[in-house]
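Before the break, one more example. Copy the sequence into your notebook; we will annotate it together after we see the structure.
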Amino acid sequence: MKTLQDQHNDTVAKIATEIQARIIDNQPVHIAKGGVSHFVPLPGDRRFKGMPIDISTLKNVLRVDVKSRTCTAEPGVTFAELVKITMAHGLIPAVVPELEGITIGGAVAGCSVESMSYKYGGFHDTCLEYEVITGEGKILRCSREQDAHAFEMIHGSYGTLGVLTQLTFKLLPAKPFVKMEYRKFDNFEAFRAEMRERCTIGDYEFVDGIIHDRSTFVICLGRFVDHAPYISNYRWLNIFYKSTAELKEDYLTTFDYCFRYDTECHWITKTIPMLETKPARFALGKFILGSTNIIKWSKRIEQILKFKKRPDVVVDVFIPEKRFGDFYNWYESEFDFFPLWVIPYRMPKIYGWISDEHASNMGDALFIDCAVYGKPNAHPTIDYSEILERKTTEFGGIKTLISRNHYTKDEFWKIYHQKNYNKAKLQLDPKGVFPQLYDKFLRP
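Here is what the structure looks like once it is written out:
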């Protein structure tokens, strides 16, 4: 009987053969991972043009090594599935993105962070080895020790260099529950100073924050605990993000802590106020609530969305901590959208895909991920998505590419390292089976 690893090897070989056939046919491709996509839906989207390469069956955890505290898994494994399996061994990934349906492959291709990122960086920073099918249909293994350039460039490549088919990554010890403490402030500077101190001292496992409005700043601090006097449930009638402004402390299971923002997809339910009422949640919750449901509904109404002047702003921007005050002063006065999710994120080193010029403008290893989810963008003359992108660059920051992008090619390659990207492209996809990074994200 074949093992999971044997089945994996057979599947990867078939995908490699399919890619080789696409080269002969001279057909561009895109990676079809199955499930829901966490790219922000955009009418007329060109990101998924080309023949699909189906990798939807690559969704197994292949092994958990308790002794070395590592896990090897396929890219389609969701973090919800992964946490259930690793918690059975008293372990957890060092970085668990906040939505249940995010896959580990997607977390590497893009940029997934969470409340342990102030210690460990992004999920990709905890990875030890990748298996990749190149654009020539070759199967490559790479790590920091073997083929380091390819390994470093896979992160942030968004599926434009090859097909990620297997990952090995670190795990950490975990306990069954998380005790939450909520420290409240009525001004930005006190909030910022406390967050910086907690990140410097490192006395909590989890650190993030929510700016509810101009006078309500909350730092959310968490520690693993063995026992809990009670357990709160934010899966149905109750709303997690609102509780942080009301409570001083709270207890969640570790699993529910990891996905505490999933029910509302942060606060996207806030855009339809009825969905935050208990009668509506009681009647419709299982059909509407949860990030997977919400994303599916957004896809169903995609044809309606095209009649909007612009999509709402949904994006994460990473601001160097030393410029966070300047950014927030602008954000509060000009952008004015709350709640704002705030996650400290320590970059272990300058990533290979960041240009030298832009790296020199960052000047900090600690970044603040400011997550903007649902800012209305229908102003007749102001495109808030474009303004946020421009201000992020001005403050030495970087934004994720999963939403709308407005860069010219010159602007794009001042931020992204064109020489390093082209070197990886020449090695991994010399025939251009996968799209170029800029071309994939250029909007109609």
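The longest helix spans residues 4-25. The chain has 17 helices and 16 strands. Try to locate both features in your own notes.
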